Structure formats: structure tokens, C-alpha cells
Amino acid sequence: MPGQPKAEFTPAASRALIGTGGLVALTFFTVSGGAYGLEPVVGSVGGRAALLLLALVPLLWSLPIALMAAELAAALPLLGGYYQWVRRAMGEFWGFQEGWWSWLFTWVDMPLYPLLCGAILQQAWPSLSGGHALSRPAMLAFVMAFIWAAALLNWLGVKPVTEWAIVATIGVLAPFLAFLAAAWREPPRPAPAHPHPLAWTGWALGLSTVMWNYAGWDNLATFAPSVRQPGRSYPRALLASVALVILAYVAPVAAGLRLDPHRRHWQNGYFVHLAAIALGPWAAAVMFWTALAAAWSQYTSQLLYVIPLPVSMAQDGYLPKLLTRSNRRGVATPALWLCTALFSFFALISFSNLVVADVMLYSAALALEFAALLALRRRQPHLPRPFRVPLRGRALAAFSLVPLGLAAIATLLAITQDRLAALGALALLASGPLLLPMLRRRPAAAAATRSAP
Q: How much is the pLDDT for 45?
């Protein structure tokens, strides 16, 4: 059974350019990007239930994942993050599944952001263009421009992406602060006397949407070699970001419900309309452009965690060595362009189909990450851990089962929503065990496995 993987780095990974502040900003956009996209939760389950989900889910879902990621990223700051954690803890087979499934997850997850942004643009376009609807070709052109412009920013290097994330965090949160101040000055409007009954499908959509908006804490680990003092930066940034994201979600939704408690009005982009109610038409325009900037900033920040996955697997010989080549800015450009082309293709699939596959692939990879946490505690108790989840034994196992239980529920709900998409996701999961024997025959992969200590 292979032991510790080789910690090979690209030129980009060898420069620690990201401090704690930059890591908080990147975490904010990797996980959140603001309250945009939460409107369908209120529309699905109503205001009170939405606030309950937004407050409860992070305690059962986000906090355990963030603590797990903080311990393993601080102990093993390797390029590829969770792919290398699982490979070290559980061997080549499961390590490959983690890397492959995580990369497949990005194929269906990353297109969600331009598609969501396009939906907001489509809803607002008639008011921006004097009543004209946004055509299908124009919508597609916008989505492609969104994807490739983000790739261009990442081509410039880690530093510009991090600096943009810091500026964008301030720019995204500032309009919400003005909105909160104005909304809380308004008297609360009465809720409907006879609200529509909630269907189980509404709860399914609400829970899956909240979990998706609170997911991604572990993704920050894939570019760990680019983080200064990862043993200290990761725990601080992740825990601070959990509090920031909860506040950035709960406060705007609570304020918006004071202005309009009717859940049937709440759909993607509704915060733009609420801003107009609280502050006037100018605020709606600001909120609209901020929503677009937030979605684009999420996408650009997340490319930082995506690219190290194929690069790390290529360094271990499972993917072509070409993917490890870097430009003079230290960016693995072949991996960047390949991923961008894949995301452009998957952006042609419907949003709902992508969400189902997204939930299933992420849940499978997440289960292996918690298994790695438990395995490393048992097999390598003396591994230096600058940060440690303050639990052990059965308590640590129970701690791990809580988010995995939520992931299982979300997976079952996703399957019932779209069985065809679920079958597609199962086929993607099955591709990992099928591909490994073929890729293992590659000379580089065989050499990496033999030479692993």
C-alpha cells in the first residue's frame, strides 16, 4: 500500500503569496459571495423556516467541515489538498477516487455560477433595456464571456486574484450594510394571514440550496503551498470566515423579510428589488451590478482551488505531465485552459441537472475526507498538527457523521428531484474505479506508486 505522496509543487505553489486576510477573502468567495442566490430558500420554505435553516445548517454542516479542513490543511499543506490527505491516509485507490471525484465535481459546480449570474441578468434585463427580453444567443455569449474573463484573470497569477477578492469582498458587503441600515428603519410588514402550505419538495429545495451556499470550506486546501504559515493561517481564516458567512446570510434575509414577508415573491435576484424598496432605484442598480461582480468573484476565486487538482494528479502520473507546465507568472496554464473548456461545455447543461450531480459528487468526496481525518488520527497520532479538532475517539467519529448525515439526506433529495441527472452522477462516480487500472499503467504513475515511501 502506498505511503506518503511526494509533495511536488509547481512554480506557482512554491511562492507563499496568500496571507490570513487574503485567505479570508478567498474563503468568502469560495463559499459564499454574499446573500445573492438565497432568495429561492425563502420562496421554498418561507421566511421563518429559511432563517432557521440559515442559522442551524452551518452548525451541523459548515463548522465540522471547516474544523476538519483546518486540521488537515495545517498538518498537510500539500498541493492538491484533500486528494493528498486521502492518498496519505487510505492509499492509492481511495486517494485517486478523491482526486478524480473532486475534479469531476468542479466540472458541474463551476458552471453553476455563470448560469446563476445569467439568470439574474435575464430577470433584470427588461428594466435595463426598456422592456426587451434577453435573447438566448446573448445569454450564452454572456455566460462564455463570464467564464473566459475569469480564466484570463487567473492567468495573470495568484496575487491579482487574491487582491481582487479582497477588494470585491468590501464591494459586495458595502451595499448590504446600507440595505440593512435602511431596512431596519422601516416598520415590519405583516405576513400573509393564510400562507400556502409547504410541500416536501419545497423543503428539499430549501435544504439543498442552503447546503450548497454553505459548502466549499475544504476547497481552500488545494493551494496550501501558496499560503503563508498555513499552520496558523488556515485555522484563523476558516473559523473567521464561518462567522462572516453566517452573518452575511442571516442579516440580509432577516432585513428583507421585514420589507416583504410574502414567500411567493422571493426568487433569484429579489434582493435587487428589495434594495429599491429600502433605498430607491439607484440602490437597485448598485445591487444588480454588485450581484454580477459577486458571482464573477466567486468563480475567479474558486479557480485557484480547481487548478491544483489536475496538476497534483498529473505530478503523480495519473494525468498528462503537460498539465504541470507553468507560465512565467507561476500559473499552470494547460490545466487552466483545459478546465475552462470543460466548464464552458458543462455550462450548456441546465442548472437543475448540474445541482443534482454537484450534491452527489461533493458528498462522496467529503465522506473520504472525514475518513482520512479519522484514519490519520489513528495511524499517525504523532503527525505534527498545528491545529487539532478538540475531539477524539468516538466523539470525533460522531462529529464526522453529522455533516455526512446531512450530505446523505441532500443526496437522497437530489435523486428524487431528477433521477436522470442522478444516474449521470452515478456514472461519473463509477468512472473512478474503472479508470484507475488504466491510468496506473502510465509509466509516471507506476513510478510514483513504487517510489512512494
A: 87
Domains of the chain by start residue, with CATH? 20-451 (1.20.1740.10)
- 410 touches 208 (CB < 8 A): yes
Question: Which cell numbers hold the place of 190?
Answer: 405583516
- Residues 326 and 324: their CA atoms lie apart, in Å, by 6
CB distance 264 to 113 below 8 Å: no
Model confidence pLDDT, tens digit, residues 142-201: 999 999 999 999 999 999 999 999 999 999 999 999 999 999 888 888 776 556 666 666
| 237-276 burial code (b ≥16 CB/10 A, e <16) | bbbbbbebbbebbbbbbbbbbbbbbbbeebebbbbbbbbb
Model-wide pTM > 0.90: no
The residues, ordered by sequence, that sit 6+ positions from 345 with a Cβ below 8 Å of its Cβ are: none
Query: What does the DSSP 8-state code read for residue 32?
Result: T
The count of other CB atoms within 10 Å of the CB of residue 410 is 22
Q: For residue 141, give every residue at least 6 positions away whose Cβ sits within 8 Å of its Cβ, in sequence order, or none.
A: none
CB 284 within 8 A of CB 275: yes
Least confident segment among 11-15, 256-260, 265-269? 11-15
